[in-house]
Design a protein that fits this description.
Elements lengths: L6 H11 L4 H7 L6 H11 L4 H7 L6 H11 L4 H7 L6 H11 L5 H16 L4 H11 L4 H8 L5 H11 L4 H7 L6 H11 L8 H15 L4 H37 L2
């Protein structure tokens, strides 16, 4: 591959070849000088040469590159990766890897890894890292993630976690939308949530929707209309097409009475 002018071009080709010539590509990794290029190739090799990639992780200078590769290895070498996290420099890197490993661990070991990841995430000072870990754990430990989300300090982080929880705990997420002050923030969650509210019975959904409607009715008209627009699938599910047809005239009446 000496005909390439730049090393990154060689790296790109090796990444593309990884599924087809994995052993040869693994052998070529040490010939690259740039640690990030080596990291990209090792990540691409993770499904095909997991043991060789695991051994090569130690050769990378950058702890972030090591983090990415260990996450890529998580489905293929979960136990070994869990034992290797200590090579990572920062706590946030270790917890990201643990959250990637946990779903792939043997059943008898899963709970301990999930608890370790959740517990460590709560100690992180960076809210974004905390939220990212919670988002990845949402499908597996939704109740614990929902409780931990209440401690997030930044609205965007809370939105990301609520959106990740929507398919798994739609009722709890709908009840939590109240915590978002801005209609645009509520709209992001409602847009994702709408597809999952049909998993709830109408009897379960109606009081949650009524509570949210009471809350958004205290907003400005512009905000209320925004919330209603993203709530239309919920309105249709609760009252079928008739409710949708009655919503627009009701809004028009209000704007006529109070222009």
């Amino acid at each position: 591959m000496s005909e390439f002018e730049y090393e990154w071009q060689r790296a790109q080709l090796l990444v593309a070849l990884a599924p087809y010539q994995s052993q040869a590509v693994l052998a070529a990794v040490p010939t690259l000088q740039d640690s990030k290029d080596r990291g990209k190739i090792l990540a691409a090799l993770a499904p095909y040469q997991s043991q060789g990639v695991l051994e090569a992780v130690q050769t990378l200078e950058d702890s972030t590159d090591r983090t990415d590769i260990l996450k890529a290895l998580a489905p293929h070498k979960p136990k070994a990766v869990a034992e290797t996290v200590q090579v990572l420099e920062f706590e946030w890197q270790r917890v990201h890897v643990l959250s990637a490993v946990a779903p792939h661990m043997p059943a008898q070991d899963q709970d301990a890894i999930f608890q370790r990841a959740l517990g460590t995430a709560q100690t992180l000072k960076n809210s974004w890292h905390h939220a990212t870990v919670l988002t990845s754990l949402a499908p597996y430990r939704p109740e614990a993630v929902l409780m931990a989300a209440r401690e997030l300090n930044h609205t965007n982080d809370l939105i990301a976690v609520l959106m990740a929880l929507a398919p798994h705990r739609p009722a709890a997420v709908l009840a939590s939308v109240h915590a978002l002050r801005e209609s645009g923030d509520r709209a992001k969650v409602l847009a994702v949530l709408a597809a999952h509210t049909r998993s709830l019975s109408r009897q379960e959904l109606y009081p949650l929707w009524r509570s949210l409607l009471r809350h958004i009715s205290t907003s400005t008209r512009k905000e209320l209309l925004c919330d209603l627009a993203f709530s239309l699938p919920i309105i249709e599910y609760l009252g079928q097409k008739k409710a949708l047809l009655e919503t627009l005239p009701a809004v028009q009446d209000v704007t006529t009475w109070w222009p």
